[in-house]
Amino acid sequence: MKHSQVGAIYLGGARTQFSVWAPAASRVELHLTHPQERIIPMQAQPRGYFEAVVDTVEPGARYLYRLDSDKERPDPASRFQPEGVHGPSEIIQTDFPWQSNAWPGLRLEEYIIYELHTGTYTPDGTFEAIIPHLPELVELGITAIELMPIAQFPGSRNWGYDGVYPFAAQNSYGGPRGLRKLVDACHGHKLAVILDVVYNHLGPEGNYVADFGPYFTDRYKTPWGRALNFDGEHSDEVRSFFIQNAVYWITDFRIDALRLDAIHAIVDQSASPFLQELAAAIHERAGELNRRIYAIPESALNDSRILRSPELGGYGLDAQWNDDFHHALRTAITEERSGYYQDYGEFRHLVKAFGEGYVYSGQYSSYRRRRFGNSAGSLSGRQLVVFSQNHDQVGNRLLGDRLTSLVCFERLKLAAGAVLLSPFVPLLFMGEEYGETAPFQYFISHSDAELIEAVRRGRRQEFQAFAGKGDIPDPQDEAAFLRSKLNPGLKSGGRHRALFDFYKELIGLRCKIPALRTPSRQNTAVSACEERKLLVVQRQADQQEVVIAYNFGDTPAEIQVRGKEIFASSSGPARQGMLNPYSFVVLLRGD
Amino acid sequence: MKHSQVGAIYLGGARTQFSVWAPAASRVELHLTHPQERIIPMQAQPRGYFEAVVDTVEPGARYLYRLDSDKERPDPASRFQPEGVHGPSEIIQTDFPWQSNAWPGLRLEEYIIYELHTGTYTPDGTFEAIIPHLPELVELGITAIELMPIAQFPGSRNWGYDGVYPFAAQNSYGGPRGLRKLVDACHGHKLAVILDVVYNHLGPEGNYVADFGPYFTDRYKTPWGRALNFDGEHSDEVRSFFIQNAVYWITDFRIDALRLDAIHAIVDQSASPFLQELAAAIHERAGELNRRIYAIPESALNDSRILRSPELGGYGLDAQWNDDFHHALRTAITEERSGYYQDYGEFRHLVKAFGEGYVYSGQYSSYRRRRFGNSAGSLSGRQLVVFSQNHDQVGNRLLGDRLTSLVCFERLKLAAGAVLLSPFVPLLFMGEEYGETAPFQYFISHSDAELIEAVRRGRRQEFQAFAGKGDIPDPQDEAAFLRSKLNPGLKSGGRHRALFDFYKELIGLRCKIPALRTPSRQNTAVSACEERKLLVVQRQADQQEVVIAYNFGDTPAEIQVRGKEIFASSSGPARQGMLNPYSFVVLLRGD
Prior knowledge:
Two copies of one chain form a homodimer.
Chain A: E1 7-12, E2 15-21, E3 28-34, E4 38-41, E5 43-44, E6 49-54, E7 62-67, E8 71-73, E9 89-90, E10 113-116, H1 118-121, H2 127-130, H3 134-140, E11 144-147, E12 151-152, E13 165-169, H4 175-188, E14 192-197, E15 216-222, E16 225-228, H5 235-252, E17 257-260, H6 274-289, E18 294-297, E19 320-321, H7 323-333, H8 347-356, E20 364-365, E21 370-371, E22 384-386, H9 391-395, H10 409-420, E23 425-429, H11 449-462, H12 478-483, H13 494-512, H14 514-517, E24 524-529, E25 534-541, E26 544-551, E27 557-558, E28 564-568, E29 578-579, E30 583-590
Parallel strand pairs in A: 10-11, 10-23, 11-14, 14-17, 17-18, 19-22, 22-23
Antiparallel strand pairs in A: 1-2, 2-6, 3-4, 3-7, 5-6, 7-8, 7-9, 12-13, 15-16, 20-21, 24-25, 25-26, 26-30, 27-29, 28-30
Helix pairs in contact in A: 5-6, 7-8, 10-13
């Protein structure tokens, strides 16, 4: 059953169409609050929708919905919340004067992703402030930026996972206009834009959607509170809301890929799972637009099913973040073994991550206290996104300290080599490329005192597992946010500059050499000497073989394989055929 | 990781091995209560198991487990609860003097199922009391009996879905010895035995397993309370408990198939779903025993995935109950449209049930208020079990009244013809074959006053949807149980006898004619005239075509198809080529 697109859609000529799903209300009125105050009755439609087309309303006008002559609420599908999560919604321009009309059109295997948080990436913390940095990202070799969630959240400081208006680009970041400018500029630089969208929960403040209808279910719990209703009564409309959201970003904002946050928190027993419908809708829209558009979930399920085609019982999603690779790599270069790291730390885990994708493909996990995962054997390398740092792995630590502040530069380079020359899709976290020293701490700017205290308590509980050395920073304190801002000045010289150049060279190598360019399992062979922590990855393409030999041990290691050395991570002297501790070389073996 | 089988296993020579999973306890002792009182410490094993091998204990001895020197509890894997759900567990004989050493070995397509409730099938209400009736079931043409759940439940009167000791055959039914005698007798008559097992919840009284370990999770809710923990911490052991249960019935009781109750209430997000592991374990055991053993879930998911092979993303279960067929058939012969019947009642629904299996394969369901189901197109006819009555459809009514008391005999015969000549696996509910007049009411015999009141309240709420004509029978009142006992004397004459003979003849026809014998989609074509409510099912095999023409209308209908009439449901006169209201004919068209 088709119904109007939810939200306020400006049709041109001072006409605006309003549609809201509010099955919990028997009467809904449109309350225009600006520039003139007006109350307009809305027509009830099938399945709980209410609609109105108003002839004298233009972009910039603000409104609320009045439910049963009682509560006044912003639009769940608001396109803009100029006054924040509690204020009225604003009608925005449907059109935008796009400058770049070419899309990057990257294939998944061409993605080299740079994850960034808009608020802390620049001093201004806005979408537009990112634009001047794009040439440098291009210089580095990045092909896609990934924006941490930008849906309107409470206050002005937030990682983004507390968003409550999935269609509204954060006001303090510059709102929808700023986001469009950023995407336009990215496309002008042939950079793709990935948007992190949160379809597993809504934030705790300004969360009014339950007044409209059964967006939530009590049948399931998530770590972040009430689960969204994807399989109960009225779930078609809840699904439609989020699917429209995905299509909105793709269509109206020209977003190239969606990173789907934490799909393991989407519980759905239906015969036609939401995620399968979402993937199909995204791909259908991609077809209509003749563009390549991808859905890339974060998944803590280690379930290859989500990436398999629907014909094989899968959801048909395109790629997923692979935390196992991170944990195996991280524990190979640090001594961390607490919390979920307890499941890793053996060299064979890293070997398996390179060779198979998931480390846990059905074995018992001590941390989870159950067998975990299934085989990733059927997946292609381009379906797994890997990283040595990301916002979670940095930020969800007691002090939000980066790998940079934990290990020496040699190990940082080794980690970079593991990620960037891997047969997978690499992702960097902003600042990693030059060894940023600022932490990435957890920060919020809620207004409800009880909620703030609850968040503080939650953080304290979370970090019981990670033995702390000091107090947990107060997430509500603006200082946590300010401390997390990047210091790009660092990369003007010294080791930071050297690391940046190192990253750049590695990415250049990946792009230049056919055998390294394509993340694929077919062209890759992984072997290892566990005792000496030597990992050898052989990759082939165009009659050329490239060998990457990594030494994860703390003593020099001899490598048997021979070839022309085209890259070495270690600046220190090494004897012929020997690898320094925590270093790697790239060898070329032509035919 | 392998560990000992849970429960008390008699090893012979007065030795018994005890194993219990009790991760919630740090110390477990075996308290032998009979014939001599003894306390024996148990050894802690990995993963929360405790074990002991005792040299001087024989079958007949009774015991409890003492947890942390505090609570004393029966064994969750108790094989026998001679004193009911609150009393000690009893060690049983491992061996049994089986008389019949041949198994029926039926293929799924040969099943003609007779569902019965042990307590009300006979005046005695025991397993052994069923045995004298087996010849008559064989005479009727039945090939398998299906026992409603027999796991130990509170008191002596219960449908069985309140069972709390999944390994213990109900004491008031005659316990494990009685059940083995029944299975042995069935096999002697070449009857298969299907056991209804409940792996989605445990009953509310005598439910002590939570004292032992995290059998339950709070992350999900089921309609019957706490959900079993199939994907959280320690879920491997919970799964193992139930998988061992399935294997126990198959191995030690020679059960031929398991009916898995309400799998839609099993929530499991793991990458290796419990139901898939269960199906694999059942089939593996079948292979070891060189027997055909099936897993047949009740599923309200309309999700063909559960029956697809794991290679195609399925669970690999064998067949499922198809409620859609029932609802479409039922609303075709009654005026019922309340509750879930509101989704049915159009003749095309019945046509679709015959042609495709699921009626809801993705359309919007008014009752569920969402789209429901996916296509059953990939399924074989033998994967769908159909019925015009079953314990739920009869018993979950205000008065538990059977179809017999709602519609005339002509319609009963029509329903029988639809089920028994369908290209699916037919199931009868005890007494249906002769038009039993006793209701099948809901009955319990709990001992907790609060619980009893809660059940009464629950029933009242449930039947708000089905407009009632009178009070709801008190489920705790023994009268509800006694009223539900069969009156087999009815079939000694009159219309009841005629109906019995009718059923017998139909089943005979199904077995005799190759085209009717095999439930298959390939050999079946369904056509219909919706206006006249005429359904024509053509089936082919061995160069022979059989046409079954059903008239679901209340006026005589002309049928176009010609052939030799080999069966007619209507005893009344009909003109040549005409079908009386609510009747059917079977025509043979040789080549």
